[in-house]
Amino acid sequence: MSERDFDLIVWGATGFTGQLVAAYLAQTYGVEGPLRWPSPGATGANWRKCNSPAWSAAQREMLPMVIADSADADSLASMAQPDQGHLHHRWPLRKYGTPLVAACVAAGTHYCDLTGEVQWMARVIPQFQAAAESSGARIVHTCGFDSVPFDMGTWFLQQEMFARHGVYARQVKGRVGAIAAPPAAAPSPAS
Fold first, then answer.
1. pTM assigned to the model
2. What CA–CA distances, in Å, run from 44 to 47, 80, 92, 167?
């Protein structure tokens, strides 16, 4: 395997979460730092329009561009080649993610996402498990908001259980109730 062109590709970085990830990478590693990562996005025009106060348009312009289309298997295969590095992806994966997982598995490139789409994961894992083991690719799901609160909550509860009772719980159950946006601020009275 040759040295990779990139260490990481954030696929879907023109969306809300992807912009946060790209801004974090820019702030933490810079655009010409030790972590090699390209401008991520379906089209260069979308990427160049991203307007995050966390990093400048000039920084975005400095990154090399990688363009691929989720409906074009050849472009995904090209992007997922081992010399292109690890891929992270976040979209409605039940609709767009399977071809990218397939391309990564075929190339032996690691794949990571932020999904909480359990039904999709339940289809993808058995579909690609053997091929991923064969190619050396790792498929890692649920590395974000959909899972982190439960992971951290379970960790906290287990720490408390052990501190109070000297044993860990055999089972921890979680449930999410209704989540609502905060109420809008009342309009200012006219002066």
1. 0.70
2. 5, 18, 21, 54
Report whether 9 contacts 37 (CB < 8 A).
yes
Sign of CA dihedral 154, 160, 162, 164: negative
Please, are residues 50 and 14 in contact by the beta-carbon 8 Å criterion? yes
> Region 176-191: what's the mean pLDDT?
59
Share above pLDDT 70 across residues of the chain, in percent, rounded to a whole number = 76
113 strand-pairing partners: 89
Give me the mean pLDDT over the 137-147 stretch.
83
Give the three-class secondary structure for 15: coil
Distance CA 76, CA 99 (A): 8
Per-residue pLDDT, 2? 41
Residue 133 CA to residue 108 CA, distance in Å, equals 9
